[in-house]
Amino acid sequence: MSLLRHGKDTCLRHISGVTPAEPLWKRVPTRDENGVLLADFLMLIPRLGKQGQAHIARTVERLEYVLHRYHEHIVFADLNLRLNTLWISLRPRHGLCLEIAACIKLHVPEAVLVAERQQ
Q: What does the alpha-carbon distance between residue 7 and residue 57 come to, in Å, rounded to a whole number?
């Protein structure tokens, strides 16, 4: 499941497919609509894909809350239930990756920050 922000739109839209998706490296934007390099980070949510549908739905709801809270900064988010990972690309701002990761951790305690890259 991906959440993608297009242009100056302030709402995120769900993108999910029944067919296999392109690799993440082909889908993740590296620059915003003005050509500015984006920052990104990866979180692991252990065993999420093996949980029941109700648990997954609650987790997605909590993630959506955080993503919408930071919607003006987040450009792309991808939740991979097979790999139990959450990838987020955002407009760079000092400390924002850690702030969003901490907010996710608050709402989804099992989530763990794996890597962050700021430009």
A: 28
Which tens digits make up the pLDDT trace of 68-102?
A: 999 999 999 999 888 999 999 999 999 999 999 99
Interval 1-22: pLDDT, tens: 555 443 444 344 455 544 456 7
Amino acid at 17: G
Of the candidates 110, 119, 102, 100, the residue with the CA atom closest to the CA atom of residue 32? 119
Give Cα 6 distance to the centre of its chain.
15
Q: Which domains does the chain have, with CATH numbers?
A: 28-117 (3.30.70.100)
Q: What is the DSSP letter of 31?
A: B
